[in-house]
């Protein structure tokens, strides 16, 4: 398990004195140790839980997503007390674990999402049932010219698919720009050195593989 940790205290006084942070860090570090987790990065923020525009939280979520890691917090309220905001975080694709309530992501944060998923499942079942009933009545479903249409548009579809893949690769490259700047600022200048730094940070390529000098060169070319 790879983990990105996030700590938050509400006031600048607590941030300066460390009140609250020590307890959060102790709880999180104990959880990481008991689960044999690898710490990828740590983020700390001094900000009210009522605010959703928190740069350190966004940075933590971004690093967790890039590293395919779990965001670990001491308590659920360190993220927010706003249910809608918590649900948005859950739907962002990053796994979140609150040490004081490890199942909160499934029981508390996800309860609204579970209801929505159940509604979508029921809609899907009703749609499938209606299609089966229509088919039983002799209604022809689908496009009878679909095969011919596919042959006519095959080349265009392949080109669109290639352009879509290029757009995804460019988007992934842009998401790594800030991390690359950090790595280069630390002294990594060769493609091989940058690849090692990315792998050490547990950040995989877009295809989930380890970085190599050649893949770093392609990444740099995209960012240029």
What does this structure look like?
The chain has 224 residues and is an alpha/beta fold. The chain folds into 3 domains: 106 residues, Resolvase, N-terminal catalytic domain (Rossmann fold), CATH 3.40.50.1390; 29 residues; 78 residues, no CATH class. Strands 2-1-3-4 form a 4-stranded parallel sheet, sandwiched between helices. It is flat, with a radius of gyration of 23 Å. It starts with a strand and ends with a helix. The model has no long low-confidence stretch (mean pLDDT 75).
Give me the CATH architecture of the largest domain, please: 3-Layer(aba) Sandwich
Structural class, from helix and strand content? alpha/beta
**Strand and helix order:** EHHEHEHEHHHHHH
Helix amount: 55-70%
Strand content: 5-15%
What is the count of distinct domains?
3
Number of strands: 4
Mean pLDDT comes to 75
Characterize the biggest β-sheet: 4 strands, parallel
Gross geometry: flat
CATH third-level topology of the largest domain: Rossmann fold
N-end to C-end Cα span: 34 Å
Rg = 23 Å
Poorly predicted runs are none
The level-1 CATH class of the largest domain: Alpha Beta
């Amino acid at each position: 398990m790879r983990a990105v940790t996030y700590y938050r205290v509400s006031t600048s006084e607590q941030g300066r004195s460390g009140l609250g942070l020590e307890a959060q860090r102790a709880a999180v570090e104990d959880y990481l140790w008991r689960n044999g987790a690898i710490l990828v990065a740590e983020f700390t923020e001094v900000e009210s839980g009522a605010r959703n525009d928190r740069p350190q939280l966004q940075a933590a979520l971004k690093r967790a997503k890039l590293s395919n890691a779990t965001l670990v917090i001491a308590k659920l309220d360190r993220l927010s007390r706003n249910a809608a905001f918590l649900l948005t975080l859950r739907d962002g694709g990053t796994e979140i674990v609150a040490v004081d309530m490890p199942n909160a992501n499934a029981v508390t944060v996800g309860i609204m999402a579970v209801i929505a998923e159940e509604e979508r499942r029921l809609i899907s079942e009703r749609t499938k049932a209606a299609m089966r009933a229509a088919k039983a009545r002799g209604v022809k479903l689908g496009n009878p010219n679909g095969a011919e249409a596919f042959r006519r548009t095959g080349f265009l579809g392949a080109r669109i698919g290639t352009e879509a893949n290029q757009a995804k690769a460019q988007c992934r490259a842009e998401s790594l720009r800030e991390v690359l700047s950090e790595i280069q600022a630390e002294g990594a200048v060769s493609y091989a050195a940058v690849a090692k730094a990315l792998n050490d940070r547990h950040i995989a390529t877009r295809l989930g593989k380890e970085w190599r000098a050649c893949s770093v060169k392609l990444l740099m070319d995209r960012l240029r």
